[in-house]
Structure to design on (112 residues):
């Protein structure tokens, strides 16, 4: 099982920005429009749940316990590219920072 399935820290730390072409009201777009908000002519971001700290509206579950992305198959490119080795327990600086903010230990560091 990927450690991401019992984490979710990045989804409640970094606000995800995406190109408007990724949204499903554009040809070929897949990210549900209703879960995004525009931040400019060509950019949008994932909406957050009300309250602080920021948490992506598509994140389900409890951080550090059991989580899932409600739009996993259609998630933005930025989500797909974040900490690409985390699924095999190899984090990076951004992953470690997000986990630290949620009082979770870093994943195994990348080998030198
Ligand atoms: S990429 Fe890192 S911070 Fe994000 S869910 Fe996976 S382990 Fe957690
Ligand atoms: S879209 Fe999914 S993977 Fe991306 S930040 Fe939101 S919950 Fe996390």
């Amino acid at each position: 099982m990927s450690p991401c399935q019992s984490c979710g820290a990045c989804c409640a730390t970094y606000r995800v920005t995406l190109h408007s072409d990724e949204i499903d009201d554009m040809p070929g777009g897949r990210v549900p429009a209703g879960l995004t908000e525009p931040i400019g002519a060509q950019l949008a971001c994932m909406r957050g749940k009300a309250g602080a700290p920021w948490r992506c509206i598509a994140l389900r579950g409890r951080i550090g316990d059991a989580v899932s992305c409600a739009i996993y198959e259609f998630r933005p490119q930025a989500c797909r590219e974040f900490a690409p080795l985390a699924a095999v327990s190899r984090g990076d600086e951004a992953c470690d920072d997000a986990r630290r903010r949620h009082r979770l230990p870093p994943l195994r560091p990348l080998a030198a």
User: Anything to note?
Assistant: The helical segments are 77-81, 93-101. The longest helix spans residues 93-101. The chain has one domain: 3-101.
